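It is worth pausing here to work through a concrete case rather than discussing structure prediction in the abstract. The textbook approach is simple: state the sequence, then state the predicted structure, then interpret. We follow exactly that order.
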Amino acid sequence: MRLAIINNTSYGISGGHSQYLLNMIPLLDKKTEIESLLVLSPKIYNYSFCNKLSSKTIFKNFDALRILKGHKCSIELKSILDEYSPDIIFLPNERYIKYNNVPTVVMVRNMEPFIQIRNNPIKEVVVNHIKKYIAKKSCKSANHIIAVSNFVKNSILNNFNINSNKITVNYHGGSVREKTINLIKPKSINTIDLKQFLFTAGSIRPARGLEDLIKALGAITNEY
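Step two, the predicted structure:
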């Protein structure tokens, strides 16, 4: 099987998409069922682990397609795919791209457009409406959908009226690299009992649900 992964994304500030590829590509590289693997990404991406992969994994760059350009494949991207001739195309986000009659799989990861977020600025509200529209078209056009949790699957079913047989749930799981990391407690919290301590990292936005986290911690503290 010749698999092409198209990362049609502008690389968000959280870096979640890049981290997902970092975990996934080495695993796909080891799959004997995959004869060749083409990883297409915008020029901003830099894969530091390229030299650790086999020669069957190829990396190429392309100009990411604008979100409002629809599903049409660009001339540049079509030229690369014509040369590679993939058997299947995988898009690890909600951005379907039509290329000839090659079967396409999309993965739904971003849940913010699907749910009502309190206190989001008006610009984010508009962007999320557009993203939800694009996600709906992508899910309906793709041959198959990967949802990263049952919550994501149910959200797709409730919002888009899609046959459940078209969706596969595949949790990300933990990274095998995490087992080798030595955790060091920051000096500034050396007086805190780590059993009652929660650390979170990332952008502080309404979609992160940090308010719910704080409320949950309060409930746990009161209970125990």
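Step three, interpretation. The mean pLDDT is 82. The longest strand covers residues 36-41.
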